[in-house]
Amino acid sequence: MMKFIRIFLTVLLLPAIAQASAIRLKDLVEFDGVRGNDLVGYGLVVGLNGTGDGLRNSPFTEEIMTNILERLGVNVTGEQFRPKNVAAVFVTATLPPFARVGGTVDVTVSAIGDSKSLLGGTLVMTPLNAADGQIYAVAQGTILAGGAVAEGEGASVTQGVPTAGVIPSGARVEREIDFDLSSLSSMRLALREPDFTTAGRIERAINAEFGRNVALMRDSGTVEIDVQRTNTRSTAHAVGRIENILVEPQRKARVVVDQRSGTIVMGSDVRISRVAVAQGNLTLRIEETPLVVQPNPFADGETVVVPRTGAAIEEEEGIQLAEVPETTSLSEVVAGLNALGVSPRDMIDILKSLKAAGALHAEFVVR
């Protein structure tokens, strides 16, 4: 028996990213004060088909179930009950900015005990608290889980994650967050990817939009707006004009590789210095030739199999690039390696070596 192991991975190589184009400010920055707030709650899911928590392993489930029943006027003190159709869960949601009383938000429900599935369950009314401990929403409804479970006498199969699900519009807002946008005399824009060049372009674009100096770049990640100088009816009107201004962002040269899938993504502005590269593939050859040894006729003994293994490493002829011009972009080098048949896995090793040699002028990110 012979085995061959080829050391490379054939996967998709994504093309180089094109030069950045003009993008709306709402996709580049966050407006100071305009943010969501995280909510969390602890509740109970009922109506499961025998896939709930085992109350011996999850005593907190029995405790919350007892509290709910007693609040509804059912006295269960001292009773012994072991239902299999209930599960304790954490309920999480994000309260969007300017949410008003009576509005609804989506919630995520996740089992915290040993429940096998939340499929078909119903979340009982659960208050959702913010970081200040106040209740801002109440969640209830039927859970939509994204997994499936099937089991028989001797085996079971699970697809997806049936112990977590969502309830679209499952929480109703009961309290508003105090934030008066119209009272702001100035507002800061926080860049999602801080960069001095991008911040300067945002400053110039906003000043050009209003015809006066209303924006000032504070640092690489902050641009401050003087709302009073915009001569708009309100702060909301000023934000509405600002968020649709088009700006061409400037980003760092970056190469991102994923070793697990062999994916390589790079920007078109990545450059390399003059360099030479030699690369080759290795093949491991493992050969099994077992030998059967038998005793002589009419002799005491038994037949045995003696293993014999032969192993060898073969190295193919390398691919060479000599004296690559200094003005060559990395995307052109990768295109040349692709034409020579270099696999993505080997290409990742070449890029690592280029970065280690100081010839790759870009941020190198390995995932």
From TrEMBL:
<keyword id="KW-0574">Periplasm</keyword>
<protein>
    <recommendedName>
        <fullName>Flagellar P-ring protein</fullName>
    </recommendedName>
</protein>
<keyword id="KW-0732">Signal</keyword>
<keyword id="KW-0969">Cilium</keyword>
<dbReference type="InterPro" id="IPR001782">
    <property type="entry name" value="Flag_FlgI"/>
</dbReference>
<dbReference type="Pfam" id="PF02119">
    <property type="entry name" value="FlgI"/>
</dbReference>
<dbReference type="GO" id="GO:0009428">
    <property type="term" value="C:bacterial-type flagellum basal body, distal rod, P ring"/>
</dbReference>
<dbReference type="GO" id="GO:0030288">
    <property type="term" value="C:outer membrane-bounded periplasmic space"/>
</dbReference>
<comment type="subunit">
    <text>The basal body constitutes a major portion of the flagellar organelle and consists of four rings (L,P,S, and M) mounted on a central rod.</text>
</comment>
<feature type="signal peptide">
    <location>
        <begin position="1"/>
        <end position="20"/>
    </location>
</feature>
<keyword id="KW-0282">Flagellum</keyword>
<comment type="similarity">
    <text>Belongs to the FlgI family.</text>
</comment>
<comment type="function">
    <text>Assembles around the rod to form the L-ring and probably protects the motor/basal body from shearing forces during rotation.</text>
</comment>
<dbReference type="GO" id="GO:0005198">
    <property type="term" value="F:structural molecule activity"/>
</dbReference>
<keyword id="KW-0975">Bacterial flagellum</keyword>
<dbReference type="GO" id="GO:0071973">
    <property type="term" value="P:bacterial-type flagellum-dependent cell motility"/>
</dbReference>
<keyword id="KW-0966">Cell projection</keyword>
